[in-house]
């Protein structure tokens, strides 16, 4: 029998649905793209069902998986990218939410910086929106990983990067979009919004300099 708390699932589902509306209003989740999750406990997460309109989620569009990415208590199919969420919950108990979006800015930046392997974000006051940062006098290298339909390959690459111990709030996937995380839904939305703003600045600066 599933052992997660039903009230926690309903609260997580409502928070995920609200986040989806907020992100979709900004056009960051086109054409059923994107996926969202929130930790329920030390073995389960609530996550979006695959293929749903992420700007119009209801409780029936959110299900439970364990940290192996297996569905719990339902025959619905979880996000195609479930493993990119669950490996983060497994490796860091401080992570309470993972959000993935597909904005134009994120997608274009991922294409332009794929060859470098990262986007360097440096000298911006808005870097302080990333949890734990107290100054603009630092650089964050947002990695760009190659896209693949084989999630275990991506998990291996993300794990190798996180194993270096570098402070980390998210990453880009080439031609695909952004993953970001935080201790709860609110903090993760702030990280997504901060990365969107910082990437937009980098793209605009690049245009102005050519
Ligand atoms: C239509 S976008 C292609 C899949 C994707 O990248 C995505 O974010 C949504 O997949 P899901 O299975 O989570 O709906
Ligand atoms: Zn995606």
UniProtKB/TrEMBL annotation:
<dbReference type="GO" id="GO:0005996">
    <property type="term" value="P:monosaccharide metabolic process"/>
</dbReference>
<comment type="function">
    <text>Catalyzes the dehydration of methylthioribulose-1-phosphate (MTRu-1-P) into 2,3-diketo-5-methylthiopentyl-1-phosphate (DK-MTP-1-P).</text>
</comment>
<keyword id="KW-0862">Zinc</keyword>
<dbReference type="GO" id="GO:0019509">
    <property type="term" value="P:L-methionine salvage from methylthioadenosine"/>
</dbReference>
<comment type="pathway">
    <text>Amino-acid biosynthesis; L-methionine biosynthesis via salvage pathway; L-methionine from S-methyl-5-thio-alpha-D-ribose 1-phosphate: step 2/6.</text>
</comment>
<comment type="similarity">
    <text>Belongs to the aldolase class II family. MtnB subfamily.</text>
</comment>
<keyword id="KW-0486">Methionine biosynthesis</keyword>
<dbReference type="InterPro" id="IPR036409">
    <property type="entry name" value="Aldolase_II/adducin_N_sf"/>
</dbReference>
<keyword id="KW-0028">Amino-acid biosynthesis</keyword>
<keyword id="KW-0479">Metal-binding</keyword>
<feature type="binding site">
    <location>
        <position position="100"/>
    </location>
    <ligand>
        <name>Zn(2+)</name>
    </ligand>
</feature>
<protein>
    <recommendedName>
        <fullName>Methylthioribulose-1-phosphate dehydratase</fullName>
        <ecNumber>4.2.1.109</ecNumber>
    </recommendedName>
</protein>
<dbReference type="InterPro" id="IPR017714">
    <property type="entry name" value="MethylthioRu-1-P_deHdtase_MtnB"/>
</dbReference>
<dbReference type="InterPro" id="IPR001303">
    <property type="entry name" value="Aldolase_II/adducin_N"/>
</dbReference>
<feature type="binding site">
    <location>
        <position position="102"/>
    </location>
    <ligand>
        <name>Zn(2+)</name>
    </ligand>
</feature>
<dbReference type="GO" id="GO:0008270">
    <property type="term" value="F:zinc ion binding"/>
</dbReference>
<feature type="domain" description="Class II aldolase/adducin N-terminal">
    <location>
        <begin position="14"/>
        <end position="203"/>
    </location>
</feature>
<dbReference type="GO" id="GO:0005737">
    <property type="term" value="C:cytoplasm"/>
</dbReference>
<dbReference type="Pfam" id="PF00596">
    <property type="entry name" value="Aldolase_II"/>
</dbReference>
<dbReference type="GO" id="GO:0046570">
    <property type="term" value="F:methylthioribulose 1-phosphate dehydratase activity"/>
</dbReference>
<keyword id="KW-0456">Lyase</keyword>
């Amino acid at each position: 029998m599933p052992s997660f708390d039903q009230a926690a699932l309903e609260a997580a589902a409502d928070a995920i649905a609200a986040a989806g509306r907020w992100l979709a209003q900004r056009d960051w989740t086109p054409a059923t793209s994107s996926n969202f999750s929130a930790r329920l406990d030390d073995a389960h997460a609530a996550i979006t069902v695959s293929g749903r309109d992420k700007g119009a989620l209801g409780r029936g569009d959110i299900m439970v998986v364990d940290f192996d990415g297996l569905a719990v208590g339902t025959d619905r199919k979880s996000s195609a990218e479930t493993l990119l969420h669950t490996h983060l919950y497994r490796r860091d108990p401080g992570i309470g939410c993972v959000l993935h979006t597909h904005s134009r800015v994120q997608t274009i930046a991922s294409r332009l910086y794929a060859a470098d392997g990262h986007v360097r974000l440096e000298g911006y006051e808005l870097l302080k929106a990333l949890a734990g940062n107290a100054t603009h006098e630092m650089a964050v290298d947002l990695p760009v990983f190659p896209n693949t339909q084989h999630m275990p390959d991506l998990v291996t690459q993300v794990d190798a990067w996180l194993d270096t111990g570098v402070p980390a709030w998210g990453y880009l996937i080439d031609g695909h979009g952004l993953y970001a995380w935080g201790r709860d839904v609110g903090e993760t939305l702030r990280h997504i919004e901060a990365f969107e703003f910082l990437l937009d600045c980098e793209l605009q600066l690049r245009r102005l300099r050519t």
